[in-house]
Amino acid sequence: MTVSVLSGVGRGALWARLESPRGHYATPDLATAATRAPRRRQLPTNHGHVALPCGVIHVYQSDSSSKPPHRQPRAGALRNSLTQIRGPSSATHKKPLDVGPSISVFPLPPLSDEQRAVIDRAAALARERFAARAAKYDAESAFPYENYRDLHQARLLALTVPRAYGGVEADPITYVHALREIAKGCSATGLTFNMHCTVTGLIAALGTEEHRRRYFVEIVERGALIASITSEPEQSFRDKYVLQTVFRPVPGGYHVAGVKQFCSLGDAADYYFLTGVVEGTTSARDGVISAIVPRTDPGVKVEGLWNATGMRGTISHTIRYDSMVPAANVIGEPGALFNIDLSGFALGYAAVYLGIGEAAFEFMVEYARTKTLKPATEPMSHHPLVQRTIAEVGTAIRAARLLLHEAARVRMTGDKEATMLVVNQAKTYSADVGLMATERALRLAGGRGILKDLPLERWHRDALAGPVMPPANDRRLETIGKLLCGLRAATLEFQ
Hints:
CATH topology of the domain at 342-484: Butyryl-CoA Dehydrogenase, subunit A, domain 3
CATH class of the domain at 342-484: Mainly Alpha
């Protein structure tokens, strides 16, 4: 067998790829083992080789001007084999590293080449760039501007923009798996990206041709970001939602006044898709309306800075709006929002929180395979309790992935009731599994798990938001139960 160490994230990073009859896979720990092996020799600047008991390792050290040789994977190799896992060094082993196919990547149902290409592009960005930046955004509660520049350059910022306007026009299956991969690298990027992408879908469904040309071109060419602004203080989707933001008709448009909270993207957004109710209307169905408000509008003021336990990079500030909105910026007629599919938000939430759980699960597997605790002489993976824990989390992750995929597939059929059922199930289960996986990962790592030099406590804090993302899991379970009992149900209700 042959093991190749390939360039990883950033200058000087190392990767290892095993070539064996079972296929190819990669691990950063094998690269670490190679560079620390007793029989290693001095490596040249960009490449070299190391002999290990398991075979021959070719080492390539990344810099700004060189790339490792590319080899096509053999038949039967895992498609997602190049998975970066931050874990402890395998140097703790007393025995040669046990090399085998990665079990951290569960196969997806069949995908087209086009779907796979988009998902792989998102996964590469998350693995090679987003993951290394996530801790900094969390610590500073800073927006991931660099990640969005990368998304724009990779033509992923327009993931849900129709092709006619220069976008990718990803179908729901492609979208959820690309988003899941993004969230594995950076939770805050995943969650805010879902807001941006869902709004582009609303513009496509409700906007005029002029709206689509104006805003989609800005996204594609300039990298513009659009935030969804609905949540308000003292309101909840646990019952009927009462909008307090008022659109008062004035000559040429509306005067909009109100305070919004949990405004994901905060003042990093270029535009706000702002929702309120037309003054004088007696019901939400007659009066709910949305409009695009530019961040540069003088009536837009940040009133409360985001200071949360988790998802800190989303900078979901509290923002006051006191703005004049031209009629040309109004998206759809009053009440039109209730006539379109609004399940995109929840489907994206499912993908994001499952992605966080997957990151924690992959860490668990690598930690168990490489960590030996004295006086034991074998890694933790040989302990029955550890095996049981990994089995339980892995089974839940795999089930959640399949449910997410099914929810996206059903949404593509256009069946509203079936979509409502499976999207609520996917969001509820994925959020719970994501939180469970991060908690189990913390427990498996022991006291070290709460230290900030590991990503576990950050993933856990980010996952805490999943079950309460509106409508919260309790409300979604009520909706699921009503549908299964043949009763009238609605995920979102406005008064």
